[in-house]
Structure formats: structure tokens, C-alpha cells
Specification:
The complex is a heterodimer of chains A (about 325) and B (about 475). With about 325 residues, chain A is α/β, with parallel strands linked by helices. Chain A has a single domain, classed as 3-Layer(aba) Sandwich (Rossmann fold). Helix content of chain A is about 40%, strand content about 10%. Chain B is an alpha/beta fold and about 475 residues long. Chain B has three domains: about 90 residues, RNA polymerase II/Efflux pump adaptor protein, barrel-sandwich hybrid domain (OB fold (Dihydrolipoamide Acetyltransferase, E2P)), CATH 2.40.50; about 180 residues, Rossmann fold (3-Layer(aba) Sandwich), CATH 3.40.50; about 130 residues, Rossmann fold, CATH 3.40.50.920. Chain B is about 30% helix and about 20% strand. In chain B, strand 4 and strand 5 form a beta hairpin. The chains are: A alpha/beta (about 325), B alpha/beta (about 475). At the A-B interface, helix 1, strand 2, helix 5 and helix 6 of A face strand 5, helix 4, helix 5 and helix 6 of B.
């Protein structure tokens, strides 16, 4: 990863910068709380935390506008918070309660919000990629100029359906931004141990898809790349690939013995490349905010997260009848 | 205020673990994210991180301790300058204090699923079969092949709703590998009739995404044998998302194409998937026999807000049937059709199996055995009431299908009848199926592998003891 150019002046307003700080901090604190609730047994099953990768989704959301869609894998909490879904509803889904986005029936990996154009939350590695292209197909078919952000990891990048999708997305000029969140490890397998491709975004060239590598620890770099990609799609030029170089601090899921990388590697990334620290420095150095201002934001975020955790504990489990609902919708479709 | 650090659950199945090693000691200052200890779970040794900042006031569980239950306090974290409290009761609780102190708030064990709400268990004591005709008496009829009927259904629905579109291999310019989509590109254009590359997994997924995005895709598989490449998208994405989204995200899509054995195409192109798909909650599964059923059911499938698997049959495509000349003719799902009434035995089938069932009934009638022949038409929802009502009348049941015998549709029908009409049975149920072998290529062996009319006749003779 390229060294940070800390001297470059960001072309961004103070309010925007504070907004990114707040959004990234919300994701981090939320995820820390989720980890805590998992440890307490309040969250079950699999729980994949986004800590370390916050700048990716916050930067790309900064490039999106109303109507744009997003779809991702099972490491999805950050994406939901970044697109404006309610932390209470997300946390309550993690605890499997009635107040969750899927009324407790989806869990960490399976959440959706039509209102926020968030199409999941998919548990099968790579399956969200053709789905994202399908959402873009629908937008093109309906004559909108919306764009779909389709997120997947370096692990999913080796799934065949990704390349089937690249081919059709380019063939049909679908307005889809493929975002490869390269956090260097597919569960416990490093990128180097899974491919000899020098880069993942360049594989798009085989299908004629343009793309680029982006510093995923720099929210402003991500935003700039996102804006370029979105403009490309909206102009009707078809898909675009962003390989966003990022890093997850925590394990693949909560049950990850972390034997595949050293503690020093993780610590070095936290110390030197942390995306939230970066924005914090920009805010302080640019005199856009004081330590006290930032402390106040920290406090505010902590309160939001604690409130979501309380809600997630208090919300009742779904009614037992819910076992049998939502299998089919509107069973009388036969009328014109 | 002092906070207890609790033994964490570090895997979905962990109930207790070994506190292998402390990486901090009393008096150390820690920040969120710092590693406190190594814990051995049932799966692995894992590091355990601090979630709050503070000073380690006291270590409560020594390293090396085995069998530490999840949520046991293992250390006390104090704020800078704060005294370590004497007993745990003075601490606030990291977390599950509220849970430990108030059982009412603890998540209840989920082993209390409501009984007797499963659809199979709610079948009424007396089955109520809807035997109303599909069209009024006196309706003008015309002869049509199954192919023509399917083509007409597609064209009518494409005309009716602009969000309906058709995609698949060779559906547009080639006009369909089996000519089901003939003329559709001409009438509707390339926006609505979309040729795909040979990429089943990919275009099935794009279809699912398009359905989430507000369209009503009809995805043609050149044959359902190729849909195995797309199985994950059909089952995990199309069928389950409505449930996983708490009802928010329906998937109105039709996957259709020929299914089952054609002729002399060997094992990889000759499988019936009826049982596979009918296994899945969230899917609707249709397998028509006649041209009229194909037309009415395909139109219903395209209008249905749920994912529908529509299983056609290559051999039936060219067969002609009477089709009602009714504008906008549809047939509801979950309603079987009685093709032939009889009192001696019930034969239940669907799709091309109906050919053997009806032929057998003719042969048996010549010997004075009157079979009632039921065409299920939809396998999910299944009109079990029609089967049960008939079995109460005939007391004998034979099922007919082309699929493999183990875990067949007939097996399921048998279980329903055992559960709800055991006392009406005068003989064991027989399932006539394809043989338990991959489809051979040699003409003589292929004939042996398929279910035959004679086998159905023989099965009926067995259950009627005649």
C-alpha cells in the first residue's frame, strides 16, 4: 500500500470531513459493541466485523446519491450503517429480535432495506455479484440512471460467477460499480496464497472493464475514486471496477484463531494506517475541529451505539408464529 | 466505575474454555482492542481483546484454569485512580449483569416452536378437494401443441406487463433451442427478449437481482440439467430471501425450461428435478402435462410474486391438446385436475408421467378396473386434499413419475397418505418411478430405465389384488 501523503490538502468541506469521521466512528464503535455482545452470548452464529475497513464504505457512500443501490456479502454491518440504516434495527437483528431489520429471521449476514436501497447481506461468497448486476440491469431496463455498488472481497474474487457477471455487465453496459474490498485475507488464506494475479481489478481487462486500485485506508481517496466510477456508469459506459486496498483488524468471524498473520502486522496497520486516525489528524491539523469537538462526537456516537445495544437486548424475540410467515408473499396473484 | 471482564463466547458453539494465558497483569493500562488473554475454545486458541479502556484492577481467574464457563467474570477493569472493589457485587458489569440479574430479560431458549402449525399437520380431517372445472362448460376449444400454448402464454404476459422480460440462451435471435420463444424477439424487441451467453450461474443471479430491482424476469434454461450450475442462486438467493428479509424482499421470477428425459441424450441431459425443487420452502413448483395446463399455469407463474420453477418436457412440446379459446386464461396453483374418474384405484402423477398414468388407466378399464387419474400440475403447493379425497374413495394408491425412486415426489405423497388416510388404505402404496440408475444411452437400456405404462398397470394389479 502506498504511503499516505499527509501533506496533500483535501478538497473537501469541513462539514463533509466531520461527517466521514462520524460515520466511520459509528461503524467502529458499533462493531466493537457487537463483538462485546457476541462475547456475552447475545449474538449467535457467525458475526463478521468490519473494523479497519470503515473508509471503504464511507468513502463510496459519499459518492452515491439517492436511488443508487448497494449489495454486499456477509461482512455487512458497516454497509448498512453507512447507507443510513438504523443502528437499533441492525443490532436487534444481530441479537435475533423482533426489532431487527428482518424481524430476527435473517441475522448478521442477511439484512435488507428497500427504503435505503440496501439489497443484502448475502451469506454465500460471491453470490451477491450477479445480484448486483441484476439490480443494475433493472435500473437500465427501467430507464433510470441509478448505479449499483456491488461489494465483494478478495476471496469472492476467485468465484466463477464474478467473471460470468463481468462478461454480461460489460456486454450489456450495466451501471454497476464492482467494489473489491481487498483486505488481504480470505478467511485465513492470504491473497498471495490464493492467486498469482498481480492485482484483482486488472482481471476486468479480460472483459474490457476499466478499473483501478484505491487506497482504502484514505476515505478521501476512496470518495474520489468512487465519484469517477459513478460518473463512468451514469454516462452509460458500463461497469467499473475499484479494488480498494484495506485491512480488517479483527478475525474473519468471531471464531478466528488468527494464526495466519502476526500480531505485529495488525498492530502496524492500526498504528500507521488507521483510516479514522487519518481523518482525525486532518480535522485537527486543518483546525476544522478541536480535541473537545471530537470528544463530543465520540460521546455522541457512544450514546447511539449504547442505545442500539439496549434496544437489541430489550426487543423481544420474534413471536413463535413468525416461524411460518414470509415463506411466500401474497398468495393470490392470479388476478390481473 | 469498575467493570467486570467476562469470559467471552468465541465461537457459535462455545460454552466454556480454558484461560490459557494472561497477556496483561494487574496494574496494566489497556485500550480498546488490546489483547488481554489467550483463550482455548473447543476449536482453537484465540486472542481476547479489551472492549473498553482502563486499568486491570484484579485478575479473578488464573491462567491455566480449565472449564471456565462463558460469562464468568475473569478480571476487573477500573478507571484510572479508582480502587479495586472488594467483591464482585460492587462492580458494574460489563455486560451481562442485566441478564444475570434479571432472568426475564434473558433470551428464552428457542425450543418451544408452536406445534401443529406445519401445513402437513393442519390437513382437515375430511379433505375438501376443489373439483371445479378449469373453464366453463360450452367454452369454444381449439387444438394447440404444448409448444404453441407456452409461446402464447409468454407473448400474452409480455404484452400485458412491461416489467416482464425473458432471458436465456438462444431465446431471441435463434428463437429458442426448442422454439418456445418463436416470434417473441420480433414482437417485443431486444430489450424484453434477451439472449445471454452460456453462463447459467451468472444469468440466474442477474435474473434474481433484476427481480429484487422491480422486474419480473422469466429465465429460460435450455434444459433444467443446466440449472444445476445455477442452483445456489435459485435456492439460496431466490427462494430464501423473502424469509431472511422478514418479508421485505420478494423475488418474482420464473425459471422455466424442459426437464426430464428427452430421447437418447444420456445421463447428463435426462434427469427429472421435480423432487429436488419441491423440497424447498419458498419455491413454487409447476409441472404441467397438457397444453391448456401449460398455458394457464405459465401465465399464473409469471404473475406470481414468488419464485416459480416451471418444469416443461421436451417430448410433450409437440403433443396437441384442446385449449380453451378464452382471453386471459389462467389456472391457479395448488389445484389438481382429475382427468379420469374411477372407484377402484387412484393413480397420481404429473408432467409426462400422466402419459403412462392415462394409458394404464385405459388398459385397466378394458379389464374392468376403473382408475381415478389425478394430475397434480403443481407440486408446491401440492393439492394433497385431492389425493386424500380420492384415496378415501378408492382405498388404493399408485404414484407415477419419471424421477429417481429415493426421496421421490411419490415418497412424499405416500407419507401424506400414511399420516392422513392410513385407515382408508386397503393396500400398500406403490411408487412407480424411473430406475435407480443414471440414464443410459443405448436405446434398449434407456427404455428399461424409464417408467412404463406396463409397470403402472402391474402396480395397480398389485394394489387391487386383481
Amino acid at each position: 500500500m502506498a504511503a499516505r501523503k499527509s501533506t496533500s490538502k483535501p478538497n473537501v468541506s469541513k462539514d463533509d470531513l466531520l461527517g466521514y469521521y462520524r460515520d466511520m466512528l459509528l461503524i467502529r464503535r458499533f462493531e466493537e459493541k457487537a463483538g462485546q455482545l457476541y462475547g456475552m452470548g447475545l449474538i449467535g452464529g457467525f458475526c463478521h466485523l468490519y473494523i479497519g475497513q470503515e473508509a471503504v464504505v464511507v468513502g463510496l457512500e459519499a459518492a452515491a446519491r439517492e436511488g443508487d443501490k448497494r449489495v454486499t456479502s456477509y461482512r455487512d454491518h458497516g454497509h448498512m450503517l453507512a447507507c443510513g440504516m438504523d443502528p437499533k434495527g441492525v443490532m436487534a437483528e444481530l441479537t435475533g429480535r423482533e426489532g431487527g431489520y428482518s424481524r430476527g429471521k435473517g441475522g448478521s449476514m442477511h439484512m435488507f432495506s428497500r427504503e435505503k436501497h440496501f439489497y443484502g447481506g448475502h451469506g454465500i461468497v460471491g453470490a451477491q455479484v450477479p445480484i448486483g448486476a441484476g439490480l443494475a440491469f433493472a435500473d437500465k431496463y427501467l430507464g433510470t440512471d441509478n448505479v449499483t455498488f456491488t461489494y465483494f472481497g478478495d476471496g469472492a474474487a476467485n468465484q466463477g460467477q464474478v467473471y460470468e457477471t463481468y462478461n454480461m455487465a460489460m456486454l450489456w453496459d450495466l451501471p454497476v460499480v464492482f467494489v473489491i474490498e481487498n483486505n488481504k485475507y480470505a478467511m485465513g488464506t492470504s491473497v498471495q496464497r490464493s492467486t498469482k494475479s498481480p492485482s484483482l481489478w486488472e482481471r476486468g481487462a479480460a472483459y474490457g472493464i476499466a478499473g483501478e486500485e484505491v487506497d482504502g485506508m484514505d476515505v478521501l481517496a476512496v470518495k474520489a475514486a468512487g465519484e469517477k466510477a459513478v460518473a463512468h456508469c451514469r454516462a452509460g459506459k458500463g461497469p467499473y471496477i475499484l479494488e480498494v486496498m484495506t485491512y480488517r483488524y479483527r478475525g474473519h468471524s468471531m471464531s478466528d484463531p488468527a494464526k495466519y498473520r502476526t500480531r505485529d502486522e495488525v498492530q502496524k496497520m492500526r498504528d500507521e494506517r488507521d483510516a479514522i486516525e487519518h481523518v482525525r489528524e486532518l480535522l485537527l491539523q486543518g483546525k476544522h475541529a478541536t480535541e473537545d469537538d471530537l470528544k463530543a462526537i465520540d460521546k455522541e456516537i457512544k450514546a447511539v451505539v449504547n442505545e442500539s445495544a439496549e434496544f437489541a437486548k430489550e426487543s423481544p424475540e420474534p413471536a413463535l408464529e413468525e416461524l411460518w410467515t414470509d415463506i411466500y408473499t401474497d398468495d393470490v396473484p392470479q388476478t390481473a | 466505575m469498575a467493570t467486570e471482564v467476562l469470559m467471552p463466547a468465541l465461537s457459535p458453539t462455545m460454552e466454556e474454555g480454558t484461560l490459557a494465558k494472561w497477556l496483561v497483569k494487574e496494574g496494566d493500562t489497556v485500550a480498546a482492542g488490546d489483547i488481554l488473554a489467550e483463550i482455548e475454545t473447543d476449536k482453537a486458541t484465540m486472542e481476547f481483546e479489551a472492549v473498553d479502556e482502563g486499568t486491570i484492577g484484579k485478575i479473578l481467574i488464573a491462567e491455566g484454569t480449565e472449564g471456565v464457563k462463558v460469562n464468568t467474570p475473569i478480571a476487573v477493569l477500573v478507571e484510572d485512580g479508582e480502587e479495586v472493589p472488594d467483591s464482585a457485587s460492587d462492580t458494574t458489569a460489563a455486560a451481562p449483569a442485566a441478564l444475570n440479574g434479571d432472568e426475564g430479560k434473558a433470551p428464552a431458549p428457542a425450543n418451544t416452536a408452536p406445534a401443529n402449525t406445519a401445513p402437513a399437520n393442519t390437513a382437515p380431517a375430511a379433505p375438501r378437494a376443489d373439483t371445479s372445472p378449469d373453464w366453463p362448460e360450452g367454452t369454444e376449444m381449439k387444438k394447440q401443441t404444448v409448444r404453441e400454448a407456452l409461446n402464447a402464454a409468454l407473448a400474452e404476459e409480455l404484452r400485458r406487463d412491461d416489467t416482464v422480460f425473458l432471458m436465456g440462451e438462444e431465446v431471441a435471435e435463434y428463437e429458442g433451442a426448442y422454439k418456445i420463444t418463436q416470434g417473441l424477439l420480433d414482437e417485443f424487441g431486444a430489450r424484453r427478449v434477451v439472449d445471454t451467453p452460456i453462463t447459467e450461474h451468472g444469468f440466474a443471479g442477474i435474473g434474481v437481482g433484476a427481480a429484487f430491482g422491480g422486474l419480473r424476469p422469466i429465465v429460460e434454461f435450455m434444459t433444467f440439467n443446466f440449472a444445476m450450475q445455477a442452483m445456489d442462486q435459485i435456492i439460496n438467493s431466490a427462494a430464501k430471501t423473502l424469509y431472511m428479509s422478514g418479508g421485505q424482499m420478494g423475488c418474482p421470477i420464473v425459471f422455466r425450461g424442459p426437464n426430464g428425459a428427452a430421447a437418447r441424450v444420456g445421463a447428463q441431459h435426462s434427469q427429472c428435478y421435480a423432487a429436488w425443487y419441491s423440497h424447498i420452502p419458498g419455491l413454487k413448483v409447476v409441472m404441467p402435462y397438457s397444453a391448456a395446463c401449460a398455458k394457464g399455469l405459465l401465465k399464473s407463474a409469471i404473475r406470481d410474486p414468488n419464485p416459480v420453477i416451471f418444469l416443461e418436457n421436451e417430448i410433450l412440446y409437440g403433443r396437441s391438446f384442446e385449449v380453451p379459446a378464452i382471453e386471459d386464461f389462467t389456472i391457479p396453483f395448488g389445484k389438481a385436475r382429475i382427468w379420469r374418474e374411477g372407484s377402484d384405484v387412484t393413480i397420481v402423477s404429473f408432467g409426462i408421467g400422466m402419459t403412462y398414468a392415462l394409458e394404464a388407466a385405459e388398459k385397466l378399464a378394458a379389464d374392468g378396473i376403473e382408475a381415478e387419474v389425478i394430475d397434480l400440475r403443481t407440486l408446491r403447493p401440492m393439492d394433497t386434499d385431492a389425493i386424500l379425497a380420492s384415496v378415501r374413495k378408492t382405498n388404493r394408491l399408485v404414484t407415477v413419475e419419471e424421477g429417481f425412486p429415493q426421496s421421490s415426489v411419490g415418497n412424499y405423497i405416500t407419507s401424506v397418505v400414511m399420516e392422513h388416510a392410513f385407515d382408508w388404505l386397503d393396500a400398500p402404496v406403490i411408487n412407480c418411478t424411473g430406475k435407480d440408475v443414471p440414464m443410459p444411452y443405448a436405446a434398449n437400456l434407456e427404455k428399461l430405465a424409464l417408467v412404463t405404462t406396463d409397470e403402472v398397470v402391474e402396480a395397480v394389479r398389485k394394489v387391487t389384488y386383481r
